[in-house]
Amino acid sequence: MKLSTKCGNFPYLPWNFLPIVDDEDQVDGEGVVHGRMVATLVDFSETEAMARGYPFLNLPAETLRDPVGTNDVLSRADRGDDTPYFIGSRIVSAERSGLIPLATSVDLKRPSRLVLIDCGLAHWNDAFWPDGIFRFSAIYYYPEMIRCQDPPTKLDPLLAARCRAEAASGGPAAPIPILAKAFPGSVWSLPPDPDDFWHGTATAGLVAGTSHDLVAFELPKALLLDWGGDKMTLTLWIALFQAIAGQLSPNYEGKVLLPFGFTGGPQDGDHPAARKISKILNCFPKVELILPAGNHRQDRLHARLTAAQPKVIWGIQPSDASANVLDLCVSGKEATFTLRSGSNGQSVAFTLKHGDYCELFDENEVIGRVHARQSGSQGQLVVRLALEPALTAGIWEIEMRDKHAADLWILRDDEELALNHMDSLQSRFFDHDYSETGDNGFPKMDDGNSVIRRAGSASVLTTAPGVTSVAATVERAGATVVARYSGLPWNGNNFAKAVSLGVETDPGLEVIGNGSPRRFLVEGTSIAAARYVK
User: Fold this and answer.
1) Could you tell me which of 417, 395, 385, 388 has the C-alpha nearest to residue 264?
2) Record's Gene3D superfamilies (predicted)?
């Protein structure tokens, strides 16, 4: 192994440019290569966007593979502020730009409206038809590929009734092929196992008993292949835009339940999404945004480096075929660190500022990429490091230089790669200077002597002022404690609410989880967030 780098400065690259978009991301079921939508996280104070829809650009696959070309296109589309672009869904269109119109509903029948953003909602379950009346005012489906000028598709009430009738005569799985045909970008086209637990059904079941007028947005199946959430950040944001700007109004009391999170960093409230959330809630003062704190205390995905403890090990498993990506966050305008291979001691040194982009080579082969971006004019510098799967297995040492402190966050990458039957294993941090182990035999965390922290896959959205972030608690020996898997307060921010999910020895809530009456015992902060809704 002989490491080297090739670098340039491209200040307009999208925030989630890495891991780089490749051909497989662009190809549809018929082998056609499509572009991807690229847009900023629009805040709802922009009246033109609210009136006309969500604006986006269409960048071809060949452009997105080239940092020079991508930077050039986006520099000419510069909005004149420090809001970064994000890469989103594939686009079925030759047009270079477009608008996604709002899916609007002004028929506000009940004291308040709750909008649920999730996927896998079995709306034919009897729980959603009390006294034969459909519990949802509307359900909207997002396509897997965006078409210019097309809003999300609304579920026809006649189709909803047909699904319920088919389930009554043919069993709870009978509606799945009907919905797969009607909404090919949805999870129903995978198709899911009819006996499995479906996330959207469980969260919807917990809120169905409230007095709120219910509206749901069904996210595309691509979400299930992106546990880290980074590729789907823009899709989730547009769904949030639709939920608030299209379904609620500034003077109307409403709630939005978004039981997903955006991972990575920074976790100080200065992530672009967290900053925009604050503006949204200022425009809609009567809207409550409810978010899960994150199911992450079991993960070794966060490290805090200091001048006294400047090193951490990043371990990548040999058979891992998924992207391995981390965010390294530092205060100021510059990050200086060394990346060292554990196999032969070869190293490369980086000194990076906003817009710097580097390719990492082993001999003549690209094995990784690095991209630095400033989180706002006064925010942290966030350096993203992405190592190529199957080429970088083993251990890598990251060492901060010049006494810089840093927080590092590994993005979750253990999603099911069912489409190509490849292993997808989570990479982890290890502290080579710390050997203390707990009762389970694994290294302890949250010990001041270790750089590893229990805050791995926390959602950056929960750091935005004004949101309702929900943690899960359990009962232990008569006391209420945060559940082992649940998020903890971060950076001095306390969770607004905590919801008990039973006793520690047998935690969870009984919930519906698919089209049948079957009940599942489920725990997690998404379930806690849904349970919180009153």
Assistant:
1) 385
2) 2.60.120.1290, Peptidase S8/S53 domain (3.40.50.200)
